[in-house]
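INFO batch 0412 | record 1 of 1 | parsing
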Amino acid sequence: MPWSSGVWACQARSTDLRENTVSDLVTVALFGSVLDAEVARNLLESNGIRAAVFADDAGGMYPPLGAGVRVVVRQEDATRAREILDSPPALEDEGYGPPEA
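INFO prediction complete | emitting tokens
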């Protein structure tokens, strides 16, 4: 679904935030690629925070067009989202930790 933010025409790569206007959303992270931003979005959503990826890249045709790929959340979720994204991964939870005795 195309969204517009000021002079940028962005494509939001999530439908979970459709009821919010762009002014209700806060950027919590900036990435150099859509893939990295999608990983962050999935991490937030797995923790119960609805998030969307905004990329000003001509629909994927010209990735260097924009100033990065943004992950956005609702204002009330911004602090918790930043805490989640700033915390180190818990590798033990993914089966990568030391073997159990």
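INFO post-check: Residues 1-15 have pLDDT under 50 and may be disordered.
INFO record closed
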